[in-house]
């Protein structure tokens, strides 16, 4: 299925992309696109992705840049199982010595396990910090949010799950009118609260930090007490057989309650989620009424998408022919 004509062009970004050089902006090294070897200009969508990556770093301290780099390393290890020093140095535009220091620091925190020439992800370790996840693949998540917002009519009742992509979708819903938002995601609640015509319903109990969400029986019961016109939910990972993965069983239960009590259940995910590992399992890719991705994942997952092509929406039109 082809992406809608109005869908924005965007590029998938998981870390500093290859084909960049480091320049100094206010004393901070930031990645900047360079001409390709053929001399042709890079597509505009790729240049915009470079800009979105570079600007935050222009105002970031050296310590902040280091933490952002380590978050990108951890995300890559979490997705692929293991990472190599040479590949990371090339991708992130830093020296192998710097990468080894980063890997050693992550190993001391028990997030990675050192291997010859790299490191592997430690199964069962926690998800990335919310602040780090919120900036990973941000252009892709914004494009997804715009597509989903077009599906929501004024006056609708909307479920919004935990996670960074649903929270960004909620921000796009602030432009709608008179929505009833039922969510256990405080970031999403704040985002839609910019519009005073909306009604926002939250569960009680203890808030989980630093994610700023609610994952308790009250949250699960809340989704069971309402019927939504559209339910928007994210996922920690999508396994090779299409199973949906999260980091805690309560995340799975809340997500499945959203799906069960929605007239239209919409799964939102950027393509980095395909093959990403997490321990808790529940639900399947094919259970969603609509699946909104930024773009197609690795060809290895083509077989998963074939049965759901009629329910698939691609937010980015680059390479999104279907």
From TrEMBL:
The keyword Ribonucleoprotein does not apply. Signal peptide: none annotated. The keyword Transcription applies. InterPro entries: Carb_Metab_HTH_regulators, DeoR-like_C, DeoR_HTH, NagB/RpiA_transferase-like, WH-like_DNA-bd_sf, WH_DNA-bd_sf. Keywords: Repressor, Transcription, Transcription regulation. GO terms for molecular function: DNA-binding transcription factor activity. Transmembrane segments: none annotated. Residues 66-121 form the HTH deoR-type domain. This is DeoR family transcriptional regulator. It comes from Rhodosalinus halophilus.
């Amino acid at each position: 299925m082809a992406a809608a004509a109005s869908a924005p062009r965007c590029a998938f970004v998981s870390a500093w992309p290859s084909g960049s050089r480091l320049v100094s902006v206010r004393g901070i090294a930031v990645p900047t696109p360079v001409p390709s070897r053929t001399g042709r200009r890079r597509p505009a969508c790729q240049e915009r992705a470079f800009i979105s990556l570079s600007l935050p770093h222009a105002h970031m301290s050296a310590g902040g840049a280091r933490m952002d780099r380590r978050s990108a390393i951890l995300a890559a290890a979490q997705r692929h199982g293991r990472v190599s020093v040479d590949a990371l140095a090339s991708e992130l535009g830093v020296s192998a010595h710097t990468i080894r220091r980063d890997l050693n620091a992550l190993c001391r925190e028990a997030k990675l396990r050192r291997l010859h020439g790299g490191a592997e992800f430690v199964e069962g370790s926690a998800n990335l910090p919310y602040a780090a996840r919120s900036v990973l693949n941000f252009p892709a998540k914004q494009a997804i949010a715009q597509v989903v917002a077009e599906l929501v009519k004024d006056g609708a009742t909307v479920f919004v799950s935990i996670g960074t992509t649903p929270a960004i979708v909620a921000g796009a819903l602030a432009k709608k009118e008179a929505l009833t938002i039922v969510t256990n995601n405080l970031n999403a609640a704040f985002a839609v609260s910019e519009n005073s015509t909306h009604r926002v319903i939250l569960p009680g109990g203890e808030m989980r930090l630093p994610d700023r969400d609610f994952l308790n029986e009250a949250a699960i019961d809340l989704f069971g007490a309402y019927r939504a016109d559209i339910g928007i939910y994210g996922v920690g990972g999508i396994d090779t057989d299409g199973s949906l993965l999260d980091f805690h069983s309560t995340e799975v239960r809340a997500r499945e309650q959203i799906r069960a009590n929605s007239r239209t259940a919409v799964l939102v995910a950027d393509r980095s989620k395909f093959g990403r590992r997490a321990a808790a399992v529940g639900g399947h890719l094919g259970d969603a009424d609509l699946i909104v991705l930024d773009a197609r994942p690795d060809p290895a997952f083509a077989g998963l998408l074939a049965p759901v092509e009629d329910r698939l929406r691609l937010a980015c039109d680059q390479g999104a022919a279907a």
